[in-house]
Amino acid sequence: MPSKKKPPTIITGPQFNGTTALDEEDFTVLAVEGFGEQAETILADINWSEEIVCLTGLRLSPDNSRVSNSAVFLLGSIFADKRVNITKLWNLDSQTHLSLTVSNASIFNFPKGALFSDYVDSSAVAFKVSQHGSELNQSTLASLNFQGFSLRAHLAPVSATNIKLWISLLPLPKLTLLETHPLASNPSFPGFKVLEGDIPLAPLSSGPPLSKDWGCPITPAIILGSDLDPDAVLPSNQALITALAAMLRKPVRPELHANGSKLAPRLEEILEHGSSVLKSLTPDHLWPLPGNTSLVASSSTGSSLLLLPLLSLRLAYFLSYSKLFNLFVLNLIYSLWFKFSASKPNSTSFYDLVSLFLKLLI
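-> structure tokens emitted (362 positions)
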């Protein structure tokens, strides 16, 4: 009988307990023109060394009243002249090494709030291939069937202030890879391990530019939907924290091989059998669900009643990832809300509850 997967450890810390509300001035300070290099402005006061950091971002609706979407992105230098043995990866006779330099981590694009990036083609990075200490020229590389390669990044939070970064390599150029392997865009698609390590989340809420205990350990860059109006209704702390949690709670731990000779058979297996042989690997840690005190009614009866679906949510991750189970949770929420709202017409709306749970689970 196969052993059960160990559930991930929920990340905790006092940084998640703050209640200081963000105001219009805070939104102005955190506003950026775009994610990626345009967001470097919020790192100006933290003595950033330009080594790699991971940032989060939130884009607001046109009237700035709600969060439209979230994003994660990397800034800084990942490595210079990182030496990787690719002899077995390309099935070569002589010891062959690839030296990689990625000085601008923003080349990794994380689409639609995902914690895994699109592939980056080798043409976008500086590299050289050598044998016995001598760099190989293009004609020699062509004779070795070296056409290029693709890189991809995966992220998974490991603490309130750090996130794990994996960099993987596939021995084909990006377009060739996607044409040859239809499942290559799947985040569980295997790769050759180039890097695994923890990097800082930045900036932290305890320091500039925010320096506020607002209920989240990190400070997001914010893209405003329009110029701030003094009378505008801005998203609450709860809305911002919920959007960040919805993104950070969905890491995909990649299947990476340190031995290049084992990758080719895995790729052939996936080509033959399809998605059924992709591995679903459990992350070691999981970002916590946001505090939901703003959703709890003031009466003791209402508080007890609405806490039940929240407890169900905390069990949901350990019991199932399936949408069927998520629908069961939502049905439970509706039943409890319906009974409670009949006697408490001004209680939290069902729409507000479902909006939160859909973001976190579906």
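The chain has two domains: 11-284, 292-361.
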